[in-house]
Amino acid sequence: MTELDYDHLLRPNLEHVFNERDSGKRKAAIADLYVEEPVMYEPTAIVRGRNEIARIAGELLERFGPTFTFVPDGIAVGHHDIGCLHWHAGPKDGPVAVTGMDVAEIVEGRISRLWVMLNPSS
Predict the structure, then answer these.
(1) Taking a C-beta distance cutoff of 8 angstroms, is the pair 98, 90 a contact?
(2) Tally of CA atoms within 13 A in the half-sphere of 12 that contains its CB
(3) Radius of gyration of the chain, Cα coordinates, nearest whole angstrom
(4) Is 106 helix (H, G, I), strand (E, B) or coil?
(5) Which of 65, 20, 68, 30 has the alpha carbon at shortest distance from 50?
(6) Long-range CB contacts (within 8 A, 24+) of 52-60
(7) Full DSSP string of 17-84
(8) Which residues partner with 39 through β-bridges?
(9) Reported CATH class of domain 6-118
């Protein structure tokens, strides 16, 4: 059995979905990276479907301003169709506002379920 390249899925998810300000490009990336009916688990909500994930990502970027960026920390790792990627986020040249990781269940090479895990503030 060939193991998945988790970095090939989770890094583009961070860069082309959650950092993408153009809604058309964001939706195209989601269509490439996610199954037809994905589910995203945030700390305060459960988001169902590609369109809702695109909407939430866009709203997040709008809320935090034009230079807010998610930056991967290292490479994504995983096994048995579960992968994770650590990241930090904040203004491009500013202090880190939040850290966390994305944990994804992969089905047939695409993200099926995504858990957004936030680290506690210090």
Answers:
(1) yes
(2) 16
(3) 14
(4) strand
(5) 30
(6) 53/17, 53/114, 54/17, 54/23, 54/26, 54/27, 54/30, 57/17, 57/18, 57/20, 57/26, 58/21, 58/23, 58/26, 60/18
(7) IIS---HHHHHHHHHHHEEEEEEEE-SS-EEESHHHHHHHHHHHHHHH-TTEEEEEEEEEEEETTEEE
(8) 48, 113
(9) alpha beta
Q: Which two tokens stand for residue 98?
A: 């939040």
Helix axes 23-33, 50-64, angle to 10 degrees: 140
58-113: pLDDT as tens digits: 999 999 989 999 999 999 999 999 999 999 999 988 899 999 999 999 999 999 99
CB atoms within 10 A of CB 103: 18
Question: Mean pLDDT for the chain?
Answer: 94
Report the chain's terminal Cα–Cα distance, integer Å: 42
Count of residues for the chain?
Answer: 122
Which residue, among 85, 89, 84, 13, has the nearest Cα to 54 in the 3D structure?
Answer: 13
Amino acid at 108: E
